[in-house]
Amino acid sequence: MINFLGWIGSALLVWHFIPQVFSCIKQGHADNLSPVMLWSWFGGEVCLLPLIISTGSAPLIANYAIGTVEVIILLKLKYYPRIYYVKYPRQG
User: Fold this and answer.
1) Which helix (H) or strand (E) holds 12?
2) Sign of the CA dihedral 27, 32, 36, 40?
3) Are 68 and 45 in contact, with CB atoms under 8 Å apart?
């Protein structure tokens, strides 16, 4: 039962950001996301690594792998946008 709840918790933690990742990929940037949120998420992933290695739990490994890929994509789009645009176009 605990393992089942672990899978559900991991799925909910990981899957809630997938729409945001796809939206940022489609837009070509992540300007709408706070750098503090992205870096704290990345820091959480780094701090979680020793636990993942020590437990070997499949739900944690899945959560860690997908979450790490998500945050790396978002950080890349935050600092190296694929689409360059003018935030405030010249009027007139």
Assistant:
1) helix 2-15
2) negative
3) yes
The tokens describing 87, both together, are 């935030």
Instruction: Decide if 92 is inside a domain.
Output: no
Tens of each residue's pLDDT in the chain, 92 residues: 877 887 787 778 778 889 999 999 999 999 999 999 999 999 988 998 898 889 888 878 888 899 999 999 999 999 999 876 556 555 55
Q: How long is the chain?
A: 92
Global pTM value: 0.78
Range of the domain at 7: 2-79
84 within domain boundaries = no
CATH, residue 56: 1.20.1280.290
